[in-house]
Specification:
Layout (H helix, E strand, L loop, with lengths): L2 H8 L20 H7 L19 E6 L12 E7 L5 E6 L5 H6 L1
Length: 104
């Protein structure tokens, strides 16, 4: 028996009587064996659908932060260019400033 089987058996609280009233069913496979047999699914390779810079911009607004920054910002907005993957982060004091930053 391998060390993973020994470790799994020794760490089972139901065998030690820690959970009275819970039935214990012995399986032939431990969680390490099951996880070892799982397969990973690969991500599909995609190509850019954009043809140039700033064709498609992804954006996200986060906030309000429970603690303000030194400058008093409680929100931030990110802009990511889909073509170049370049990103910009702006710190904002109010959520209403998002559109002003986008126009810049």
């Amino acid at each position: 028996m391998s060390w993973t089987h020994e470790r799994a058996r020794s760490s089972n609280p139901t065998q030690k009587g820690a959970l009275p009233g819970i039935k214990y069913y012995k399986l032939n496979l431990c969680k390490f064996c099951i996880m070892g047999r799982q397969r990973r699914v690969a991500f599909f390779i995609t190509q850019h659908k954009t043809k140039g810079l700033l064709d498609l911009i992804h954006t996200d607004v986060w906030g309000p932060s429970p603690v303000a920054s030194i400058g008093g910002a409680r929100y931030y907005v990110t802009f990511i260019d889909d073509f170049s993957r370049r990103f910009w982060v702006y710190f904002l004091k109010q959520k209403s400033e998002v559109f002003l930053k986008f126009k810049e």
